[in-house]
Amino acid sequence: MASILKVNTLTGASTAGSIAVTGEGNSTTTNLQQGLCKAFFHANGTGTAATLNSFNISGITDNSTGSLTHTFTNNFANVYLAVGLGMTAYSPNITSTAVGSITTLSANSSGSAVDTSIHSANLNGDLA
Q1: Residue 9 has what pLDDT?
Q2: Is 34 left (phi over 0), alpha (psi -120 to 50) or beta?
Q3: Has residue 80 got a pLDDT over 80?
Q4: CB 87 within 8 A of CB 123
Q5: In 22, 70, 96, 128, which residue has its Cα 20 to 30 A from 28's Cα atom?
């Protein structure tokens, strides 16, 4: 029989910010908070740069051709993020990370910076 659980807040029983989830095969556990994407963005980098969809992103700065900085609403604990990055350019690059932002650069096949219609990323790590 299926069940429905409706809650507004999940809190760990022994540690408020830590919830263990039993994995496939019932032999391992995963920390729920560690497995969540902490920020993502999908932006248009052509013309006037604009964020089209995002989570935990407060703003975007068009630095120069192909280079965008995305500012986080809630900072990360450190600069060591795991980032999945995608662009319509040949070479998507991360040029810098900070606890409060990430800067990306799109380049064509010859390595020249180009504006692209898609700058997207998901960011994983610990929030501050």
Answers
A1: 85
A2: alpha
A3: yes
A4: no
A5: 128
